Amino acid sequence: MSKELSKTYNPEENEKKIYRKWEKSGFFNPNKLKLKKNSKPYTITIPPPNVTGELHMGHAMNAFIQDALIRWKRMQGYKTLWLPGTDHAGIATQNVVEKNLKKQGLTRHKLGKKKLLKEIWVWKDKYGNLILEQLKRLGCSCDWSRTAFTMDPDYQKAVKAAFLHFYNKGWIYQGKRVVNWCPRCQTSLSDLELEHKEEKSHLWYIKYPLVKPIGTKKHITVATTRPETMLGDTAVAVHPNDKRYKKFIGQKVILPLTNREIPIIADSILDPEFGTGALKVTPAHSMIDAEIAEKHNLPAIQVISDKGRMTKKAGHKFASLTVLDAREKVIKELKKKKLLEKTKDYTHQIPRCYRCDSAIEPLISPQWFLKMDNLANQAIKAVKSNKIKFHPKRWEKVYFDWLKNIKDWCISRQIWWGHQLPIWQCQNKKTEYFASDKTPKECSVCNKCKPEQIEDVLDTWFSSALWPFATLGWPKQTKDLKEFYPTNTLSTARDIINLWVARMIFSSTELIEKTPFQDVIIHATIFAKNGQKMSKSLGTGVDPLDLIEQYGSDATRFGMLYQALINQDILFSEENILMGKKFANKVWNASRFALMQINKEKIKIPDNPNWKKTTKADKKILKQLNITTKKLDSYLETFQFGKATHLLYDFFWHDFCDKYIESAKKQDNAQTKQILAYVLLNSLKLLHPFMPFVTESIYQQLPFKEKEFLMIENWPK
Fold first, then answer.
1. pTM of the complete model
2. Where are the domains of the chain?
């Protein structure tokens, strides 16, 4: 006879105790599960949180989804691996450490590269696993013995192997391009690493005097949001079909404040409806202008430096001014010369650095690029052929739109923390480079000098793109790689479909010639109750750990998944977490009552029950249990977690508690008690992926339990 359940369920006491027992058992490790021979593997690699990260509601939602799937599959007899780990998060981590150093009056340049990297490693070792410890509070059944980090020695080998593969195919090249440049972080950023913020500004209408008047026209007017960049203009462009400017094409204007003559050209890339329909072309400070310049063979004049200040080429009046100071001075000078026609209020999206919030400066910079044509086609094919499916399917459009309009990927970053490019520069021929994954004994360019490795590090997403297979040992053909790759399911957020999901897909199809996973779940995004983005700085953030402290982990899990229905935008409701707590208490109290009835006799549940002389209530609950099991499997197979939790709530509360337990009270026979025990046990099994702690706590007190833990019980059929 088992010990009686306590009158009330205490989540804080039970959750920590149960988790310690789970960890001690070793059953999070697939190699320690007692399985049938030839059991199929089921693998999820966790989207690695940044080492700078602290748990937020998005992490919690995603972790609950993944853990529900892992627990379900484990109980179904799969060899389940949920592989955890963290990302080194280049710019983010370096910025955090630099901010800490600033408090001590230190900068990275004062410290130097070697000492800064040492500081970052110290910081990483101290704080980097905080978020993994927080995931344990959620009940995540990850195999912690396989925890990976994107800067582990073996992972670094994988990054070099991938780089050399692309390099040897001729897909990695150096080029001078206009890139997104952060003057604060002193590095290039990809388009996907920018945060566009709506800001109020102006459109300034500037007169560019014609060298030769056209009839009564003595100038052409250009509208711009950035008058300071006009100092680097090398043309004015109009649309070839714009009747207003037909006679202007081929003429020249005098660039205000510089007295340089520049041509008026025609290009169909222009939007004739914007501003005046005439565009100032500044090839050194705009990606679109750089495209126009390439077609028309225009020079590029860089008037803004990588520090965000005006260069000497901007003219002595403006050199060394900040961008905003230069803007004011340019406007003042234009007014003096009566070349400012008018100013209009204008609201537009300003690109800012996703880490430090500085305004981005498009600048020409020598960078390393990865050619994307072949890789993008592979990624498109993988989804079009249904080898990979998105859930919901509508997210495929976001994926395809990006890949069909993709540009070559700028993979180099000018920071110190990260994977240094395995590119070496010849010291005799400084414009020549070669790749090597080891420190070369001699230069393969001149065979004389001692080559130096370039300082640039790889975009963090380059290494993250290898996550599904590098964590399993690639490029070595390890046992884990053979057994657990390809993985089965990826659950992630909508905002990294292109940053991460697409890149994992093309990296996998190219490097391993297999897709990295079969299903991609794009989980719902949780917003504050008022519809705003959840944010600490806005005061709209909710800490999932605070919810766990107040209501318990199961209540938080059940309440959050309960909201995950068709809508992909969830307005957070604490009432649902409270509902989860009430439901956890209901499960506890109903189980306590049932066990008080059952414990009076020795109950053994048959493997293949075939009860005779069942009551109407017995038949009904057994039928309902069977229907619920089938429906639940169907919902989990299609990743409908909201429907799954609603189904379980209705079955347990209404069918089992309100109806069957009330009916069973009136019956005093062994068979009814056996059916009561059978339904209770199977209800706990069905609930376990959604309420792992309370169900495990109850299971440990069952007099008829057959396994060491509920988490390794057999799933109902």
1. 0.89
2. 189-361, 422-455, 547-712
